[in-house]
Amino acid sequence: MQINERDNVEVDLKSGHKYALTDIKAGEKVIKYGFPIGHATTDIKKGEHVHTHNMKTDLTGKVVAEYAPYTPTLPTKEKTFMGYMRENGSVGIRNEVWIIPTVGCVNGIAKRLAYLTGSKTYLHTWGCSQMGDDQDLTRKILCGLINHPNAGGVLVLGLGCENSNIDEIKKVLGSWNEDRVKFLNTQDCVDEIEEGKKLLAELRAYADKTERTPVPVSKLKIGLKCGGSDGFSGITANPLVGKVAERFYDHGSTIMMTEVPEMFGGEKVLFDRCVSREVFESAEKMVQDFRDYFVRHGESVAENPSPGNKAGGITTLEEKSLGCVQKGGQVPVTAVMGMGETTDESAGLHLVSGPGNDIVAITNLTASGAHIIMFTTGRGTPLGAPVPTLKVMTNSDIATRKPHWTDFNAGVLVDGENMDQVADRLFDLCIETAEGKETTSEKMGCQDISIFKDGVIL
């Protein structure tokens, strides 16, 4: 325990939990980050621990927001990095060969081919027995992966009889380079392993023709994600990532944030930076649609934080959300996107619809075009997306105990290191990663996807 000299309150600095800086009466708002995070359910004395036993959320099913005109600053900096320029003008930061199954039935074949050829495959359980919008989303996500520029070559592996068969995938995929994307229906050949090996060898040979060249940092799309948050998330890692996001925006990059349910209660921070009424109304609708989704299923919009969040000191969803949205820094909100939509290269913060579930969220960011994901965590996770996923730890304890999960330790901020200097180091690490430095999840082979499911299973 340590005395907070300014407020003369004894606190446990390592716990991430909250302590009252003043007396709070029952029913009064509890304030953190300058915003209400709930109300006191009992009288709370100065210095007392504030958590689930004496405070509660104020969230309801409706978003209450008003548009306020906002004029952003514009990017001013220019910098290049070494990336892979694709024929369609997009840029990749990896030059891998991917196998994308159209349906879970061929997962075993995809794994076998990946093992035999050194390719990467991203397995999922859908692609069949789906209907309507649910099936459409699966196809959009798969096409987002097929078109991702981090893949120098892609084998689309189908079964043949599935709903999202190769012919249906092609309708969504649009135009493609036949040297870069090849298709194999396993029901249509005698030996799918030998045929797959042949096609993958051709794809590898094509990918190897492309070399890194200087490209503008403005071409980069940076995804933002937090998972396994704790009481330090909104104090160290998330505001740090926000500072790095601002640096990328200064260079004209696209920043992408998802986890809509973890905006509940913190929406105003984002809404106040919408560059137009149209963007504001789209953002408001995105958040309200997700609240309505909870209500339709009979769930409370405040059914969050997780047990791990609470153990780490987070009490209400408002508190979690106000920490979560700090990952966007002060970057202006310039676009709102649906799940499975591919973002353009316009500078600014693009809000991507989707849940907070870690593996679904990083899949959505990847399918929408993120090259790199900065993933903050206080509890720790080995999870990585198909694209490089930098794990930014909120505290030095988890960074020390799990170095093989850690790419960057934001816990040094608690020890008094300068925020701008630490942000410069993380920005530099992102550029190094874009130029080929492997993340811990890449080294461990912890790269996975999960597609959002919201519909009937036939």
Task: Please outline what is shown here.
Helix content is about 30%, strand content about 20%. It is of the alpha/beta class and about 450 residues long.
Please outline the helices and strands:
Blueprint: E1 2-4, E2 9-11, E3 18-19, E4 29-32, E5 35-40, E6 49-50, E7 55-56, E8 80-85, E9 91-92, E10 96-101, H1 107-117, E11 120-121, H2 132-146, E12 151-158, H3 166-173, E13 181-185, H4 192-207, E14 213-216, E15 221-226, H5 237-250, E16 254-257, H6 267-271, H7 277-296, H8 307-311, H9 317-324, E17 333-337, E18 348-352, H10 358-367, E19 372-377, E20 389-393, H11 396-401, E21 408-409, H12 419-434, H13 440-444
Helix pairs in contact: 1-4, 2-3, 2-10, 5-12
Description:
- The structure is a single chain.
- This protein is an alpha/beta fold and 458 residues long.
- The chain folds into three domains: 55 residues, Roll (Archaeosine Trna-guanine Transglycosylase, Chain: A, domain 4), CATH 2.30.130; 114 residues, Sugar-phosphate isomerase, RpiB/LacA/LacB (Ribose 5-phosphate Isomerase B, Chain: A); 228 residues.
- Helices cover 30% and strands 19% of the residues.
- It is built from 13 helices and 21 strands.
- The strands form six sheets. Strands 17-18-16-15-19-20-21 form a seven-stranded parallel β-sheet, with helices on both faces. A four-stranded parallel β-sheet has the order 11-10-12-13, sandwiched between helices.
- Helix 2 packs across helix 3.
- The radius of gyration is 23 Å and the shape is globular.
- 50% of the residues are buried.
- The mean pLDDT is 94.
Question: What would the keywords be for this entry?
Answer:
alpha/beta; globular; Ribose 5-phosphate Isomerase B, Chain: A; single chain; four-stranded parallel beta sheet; 458 residues; 19% strand; Archaeosine Trna-guanine Transglycosylase, Chain: A, domain 4
